[in-house]
Amino acid sequence: MSSVAEKLQRKSQRQTSVKQVRLKLVYIDFWSAVKFSFLVAVSLGIVLVVASMLVWIVLNSTGIFGKLDEIFRDILSDETFSVATSFSLTQVAGFSFVVALLNVLVGTALGAIASMLYNFSVRLTGGILVGFTNN
């Protein structure tokens, strides 16, 4: 006659017998890597544009540009200089958009280059050994 504790122990031992699988990553599809790196770069570009615009709005609403205007007017002794007009929201958004486009191009190219380099290095190293479990 077995106790409830022994039954629960046997049941937990059956459930913990997990099959482990060891696989090697020996190839990364070039076009999949290019598409993935493009999507990641586009999402980071959108974040860059939105974040730069939000930072400009926060700096403008807190009055930091006015304080900077006073400091630069004292230093430069030029009464017509204004930080807010020199760096308007449209100029900041345009500059961050151009930087985001360049980041998309560079990020996509780096993703493609990284996948090619990995595929070439697999010939020497044999790939990365990855372990998986089935829970």
Structural notes for this entry:
InterPro entries: DUF3566_TM. The chain crosses the membrane at residues 36-59, 95-118. It holds the Pfam family DUF3566. This protein has a two-stranded antiparallel ribbon with strand order 1-2. Helix 2 (30-61) runs antiparallel to helix 5 (89-125). It has helices spanning 4-15, 30-61, 64-76, 83-86, 89-125, and strands at residues 20-25, 128-133. It contains five helices and two strands. It is mainly alpha-helical and 135 residues long.
**In what order do the strands lie side by side in the largest sheet?**
1-2
Q: Main sheet? A: 2 strands, antiparallel
Proportion of strand residues: 5-15%
Structural class: mainly alpha
Helix content: over 70%
User: Count of helices?
Assistant: 5
What is the general shape?
A: elongated
Q: What order do the helices and strands follow?
A: HEHHHHE
The radius of gyration is 28 Å
The N- and C-terminal alpha carbons lie at a distance of 31 Å
Number of E-state strands? 2
User: Ranges with pLDDT <50 over ≥5 residues?
Assistant: none
In total, the number of domains comes to 1
Kindly state the mean pLDDT as a whole number? 87
Pfam families: DUF3566 (PF12089)
Transmembrane segments: 36-59, 95-118
Domain DUF3566: 19-133
Keywords: Membrane, Transmembrane, Transmembrane helix
